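User: Thanks for the earlier help. One more: Acrylyl-CoA reductase (NADPH). Can you show the sequence and predicted structure together?

Assistant: Of course, both are below.
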Amino acid sequence: MFKSLLINKVENHYAALLAEVAESELPEGDVTVDVDYSSINYKDALAITGRGPIVRHFPMVPGIDFAGTVSASAHPDYQAGDKVLLTGWGVGEKQWGGLAEKARVNGDWLTPIPAGVSSKHVMAIGTAGFTAMLCVDALLNHGVKPEDGPILVTGASGGVGSIAAMILSSMGYPVTASTGRPEEASWLYKTVGVNDIINRSELSNPGKPLQKERWAAAIDTVGSHTLCNACAGVRYGGIVAACGMAQGMELMGNVAPFILRGITLKGIDSVMFAKEKRAGIWLKALHHLPLAKLESISAVYPLREAINVAEKLLNGEIRGRAVIQCR
């Protein structure tokens, strides 16, 4: 038996609880992992609380990422004792996930943890940090340089936003943070390293199709009107990397920024990101995000508190990363 967060739905009653689960209940897979750490991402919080249609198969163990030690393997790339991590691939949505003491998955979905790096370190980065690094990488590949001007990061108090801002700051880019939590200003300036802060209300309502060219590029974790306004305010030839939908899925924009300023809108998906490219992104993230730095923007909670943490995250009461210690 092992402890696990379990979501079930019986006669339209949706509930998440901490349960004891038999190892025989684990799904099919060629690698079994003793999970050390997982985390609560925005998608996890939606799944655990039932506020979003993330989970469609029940019962389900949530947790879209995890890190731990292989306890059994029939996969040629892994053997017992190997340190591994997983993000994406539908785990925690369609396949039992990482908010448990054990997980069993397809070994092709795993990424080896580099030597000398802990499970705690990679989960302090987690899906949010992996996604943030993909966003930053998109800007770099577009040719955006620090001297080009400020980079807008929306949802900057959240997991993806705070890590994206921290990475950019560490690379010498000036960062403008958009947040709805003015009480986090000191933390954003001193800990995350942003240069300027704007209230999210400046971006969250419908705006003009073309606005003042304020930013060299943008990373948007919010969607909806915020994404449209980010596009409208990016300078000629700039890029917007879009990876989230905290405000909404709709995109009610205008072609003007694209055909008059030549900007690029780059969609970022970390779930199905190519396996062969993942290790490189992780090495970049680990380089820019040493554990000592991550500890200033993350907090660790025991598995028994995961449901409460999910509620707090959706209520805007969690800043940075929420790491879950599973054993």
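User: Great, one quick takeaway?

Assistant: The two ends are 13 Å apart (CA to CA).
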